[in-house]
């Protein structure tokens, strides 16, 4: 991960925590294939061909690697449905390993092995945790790369999850975050992503296109204002009149919800699966009590993982997720001003026909991100194109991680 500074976004006091989720494949030897286990390049472990349960062996092997560097790990042998509750506790302290069914080999994958798809989630980390080559996440990834034969291709996701310290994001903050993502997804977030395998992997699926609320019929701006006077008043404190009526209706729906669980469902797809942004709600430590506390975690599932020299953008995605959540903690007056400035930028794009790079630059500027920060994104985005180092063909043809 490259080192970079997190820009200042002034907001309400309080710390944030975050965790990351990466996907990769681990090699499994093929029956009848000859391997040179004594060669200089064969020191990394591959699952034996005769393994009774290859996925379980891979999961527990990776867990043992983490345990050797004093990191607690938990193995879940069955992959959960994406629509299931994401968190087992309010503050997970262990690395979580589970299968990933959509992570599969592609043309160009090292052909002498079969490959087993894995998803690895970190514990919750303080926002003061370094986001660079000396981070806890990088130390663990490096340990796995040194011990296990790993391949990463265009089906592998990088996800970031952010939560306020103490757990509860709150209804108004959740609405602000969903509003920010709705207003910036087309112009800023999606252009930062590779489109490779996005639909089949569940990565970078637009909230503005695929969410349950986005496919409901438009009714007219006056019809979609919240009926509850208090809810409507809170919305007006935070939300300006937007230039586009269709967008205004959708944002009205965001602000009409009266609890985070409702909002969580509205920004998922019609089958309950999380999209580019999700709010993952769970019950915390007292989940069996009559009135369990609710904790919400903001999930950002936009990025592909490509941990190659000079091309790893995961630290930038962590920082952008933190910035968006931090901006959602502004007071109503300042959030209203930010939302208005973003809406004015979007209107300007429509009138001027600004290209993708200009839209990204302007919208990042609304969050205080200058050229020194967004410049590296442009280099990465350019490599996603045909013939680039991060095009699907180039990613799929990478050798195993050394």
Describe the model.
It is a single chain. Strands 1, 2, 3, 4, 5, 6, 7, 8 and 9 form a nine-stranded mixed beta sheet that branches. The protein is an alpha+beta fold. The chain is built from 14 helices and nine strands. The model is unreliable at 1-8 and 285-289 (pLDDT under 50). Helix 3 packs antiparallel against helix 8 (245-256) and helix 3 (171-189) packs parallel to helix 11 (332-352).
Task: Describe the secondary structure blueprint for this structure.
Blueprint lengths: L15 E14 L24 H15 L4 E3 L19 E5 L13 E9 L3 E2 L9 H12 L2 E2 L5 E8 L6 H19 L8 H4 L5 H4 L10 H4 L4 H10 L6 H12 L3 H7 L10 E6 L12 E10 L9 H14 L4 H21 L3 H11 L4 H13 L8 H5 L6
Parallel strand pairs: 2-3
Antiparallel strand pairs: 1-4, 1-5, 1-6, 1-7, 3-4, 7-9, 8-9
Helix pairs in contact: 3-8, 3-11, 3-12, 7-11, 11-12
